[in-house]
User: Which sequence fits this backbone?
């Protein structure tokens, strides 16, 4: 009986470890997706900021 309990305990620990690993993997995947979205947004936003600021400087001089 003790061996059966020990075996079940080891199975539960392995299951919990696998679930924790899966959660970590999902968190990393989510973080990577958010980072890619932010970088993509910044790459679109930076030229717009440059164009607008250049336009403002040109308008200020004239």
Assistant:
């Amino acid at each position: 009986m003790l061996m059966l309990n020990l075996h079940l305990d080891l199975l539960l620990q392995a299951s919990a470890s696998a679930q924790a690993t899966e959660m970590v993997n999902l968190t990393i995947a989510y973080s990577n997706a958010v980072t890619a979205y932010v970088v993509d947004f910044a790459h679109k936003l930076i030229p717009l900021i440059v164009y607008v600021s250049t336009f403002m400087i040109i308008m200020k001089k004239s």
